[in-house]
Structure formats: structure tokens, C-alpha cells
Specification:
297 residues; mainly alpha; 77% helix
Length: 297
């Protein structure tokens, strides 16, 4: 339990992250050449997400959290299921994803990013892996541990894709629905954090040797993990609500501007939500031209 806890050279994780970075860079470059440049803020967010993902796999968090103390492992899990996916999804747009969606069978998986399936998958993944049996199996077996981490990352991508909508979501899932959705997600995660805080006994005895070496009691270790989970959830919730509020203001202003230009309210609302200004304005221009032609005739 007192062995090295430095950075880990994991060729698989490094190659995976580098492949994502290369694919993203190529697509961004291709879009830029066709006049559809990806905003710098999105690019920075995506690459920060990859750095966060790599840190979760190769930093001391992996070595310490795997078999020494629970609360460090919890930090790693939060990076994988929450923060890295959030940053990566913020860096995505429909045009960036189009080549992936065109691959055989991939487009059909888009349904998983629908808010309801995404929430169900995320909740099952979060809770199933924190049941003591599967959790300690992941600690004991490297393939199970890898599956755990990849499923955390995939579930995080789905939940944030549902909220941030790099691809259009269902019409009913507006900003108000998103706010309720974020609260539901955070309530589910918060309940798990509270469980770690109030449990009267250690849930994961496999950490006992490492906790003794690091001079921390099992219950203290577990409660610190629960506190970290609760605090991180609160901060992410504040970010999500601030983002939704700013988005609501922007959409309201854009929608009214389009209506003033002659766009139909429904079309203006959709254009404001997904940034389809060109479509809305061209449609309103076409209606104006048609009306003008009728009046001349």
C-alpha cells in the first residue's frame, strides 16, 4: 500500500486520448476550410476535457484511488463521469459530429442521448458500480476496472449531450425542462454522496490496508468521499443553472428579433434554440418576397 503513487504510463489511455484529439483537430480544420469555423472557446473546452480524461487515467489519482483510499478514487470517478464529459460535450457541435453519425449503425445510437434513456443509463451506471460487489470487483480485476471507467465516461457523455444539445433534442426539452432535469441528475448523485456521509460502517473493506498505511479511518475516508461528491455536484449544478439562464436570455432575445423580422414564432423559437438564424431569416425573406410578389400582381 506504500508503493509508488506517481504518474502511470498507460499506452491504451494515452493512445485513446491522442486519437480523439487528432480526429477532432482534423474535423475542425476541415470545417474551417469550408467557412464553418468552430469557435475557439469550444475547441479549448474539448481539449481541456481530454486533458481531464487523461489525468483521470494516468495521474496519481489512479494509483492512489485504486487500492489506497476511497476519497481519491471518488475524485477520479467524478472526473470520468462528470467533468471530462461536460468539457468535451461543450466542445462539440452537429457539424463536428456529422461524419461519426454517418458511420453504419452509429446514427441509430443517437436515441441514447435522448433525455430519458440518457438519465436511465447514467443512473444505472452510477449506482450499479457503487454497489460493494461490483465496486470491489473493479478494484481486484483490471478488465472490470477498465469497463467501469469507460462506462462512467460514456454515461457522462450521454447525460451532458442531452442537456447541452450538440444535436437537436426533443421539442419539449426546453430550458425549463433542462433545469428540472439537471436537478434530478444532481439529486440522484447527491443521494449517493449522502449515503457515504451517513453510513455507519465502511462499504468497501478492500481499502482497509491502504487506509491504515495512510493513517485514515475507513469511515473518515468514506465520509470525505461523500463530501467531495456533494460539493462537486453543487458546483456543477450552479454552473449548469448559470448556463441555462444565459441561454434562456440569449434565446429570448434572438427569438423576438426573428419574429420582428417576420419569422413565424415556432420557426423563430427553433432557430433561436439551435442557432439556425440563416434558415429562419431566409424563410422570412422568402415569405416577404412572396408577399411582395402577390401585392404587385
Amino acid at each position: 500500500m506504500g508503493g509508488p503513487v506517481g504518474w502511470t504510463f498507460d499506452p491504451g489511455a494515452i493512445c485513446f486520448v491522442l486519437a480523439l484529439a487528432a480526429a477532432y483537430a482534423l474535423r475542425v480544420s476541415s470545417l474551417g476550410r469550408t467557412g464553418r469555423a468552430v469557435p475557439l472557446a469550444r475547441q479549448v473546452s474539448f481539449y481541456l476535457g481530454l486533458v481531464t480524461l487523461l489525468a483521470a487515467f494516468v495521474s496519481p489519482l489512479d494509483a492512489i484511488g485504486e487500492n489506497r483510499v476511497f476519497y481519491v478514487h471518488m475524485v477520479q470517478h467524478l472526473l470520468l463521469i462528470d467533468l471530462a464529459p461536460l468539457l468535451i460535450v461543450l466542445g462539440l457541435t452537429g457539424p463536428i459530429l456529422r461524419p461519426i453519425l454517418a458511420l453504419p449503425g452509429v446514427g441509430r445510437l443517437r436515441v441514447l442521448a435522448h433525455p430519458l434513456p440518457a438519465l436511465a443509463i447514467w443512473a444505472v451506471v452510477l449506482y450499479a458500480w457503487h454497489v460493494p460487489g461490483p465496486y470491489e470487483a473493479a478494484l481486484a480485476h483490471t478488465p472490470v476496472h477498465l469497463l467501469e471507467h469507460l462506462s462512467f465516461f460514456a454515461a457522462g457523455l450521454l447525460i451532458w449531450a442531452a442537456v447541452l444539445e450538440p444535436l437537436p433534442g426533443p421539442a419539449w426539452f426546453g430550458n425549463g425542462a433542462k433545469a428540472v432535469y439537471v436537478l434530478a441528475v444532481r439529486a440522484l448523485a447527491g443521494a449517493l454522496g449522502v449515503l457515504f456521509l451517513i453510513a455507519g460502517q465502511p462499504l468497501y473493506p478492500d481499502y482497509a490496508p491502504g487506509e491504515r498505511f495512510w493513517h485514515i479511518s475507513p469511515l473518515t475516508d468514506q465520509r470525505i468521499g461523500g463530501a467531495i461528491m456533494s460539493i462537486e455536484g453543487a458546483l456543477v449544478t450552479l454552473f449548469a443553472f448559470a448556463w441555462l439562464f444565459l441561454r434562456w436570455l440569449r434565446e429570448a432575445e434572438m427569438r423576438q428579433s426573428l419574429i420582428d423580422e417576420g419569422a413565424l414564432p415556432v420557426r423563430a423559437g427553433r432557430a433561436a434554440r439551435y442557432g439556425g438564424l440563416a434558415t429562419a431569416t431566409s424563410s422570412s425573406s422568402a415569405r416577404a418576397a412572396s408577399s411582395s410578389a402577390r401585392s404587385r400582381s
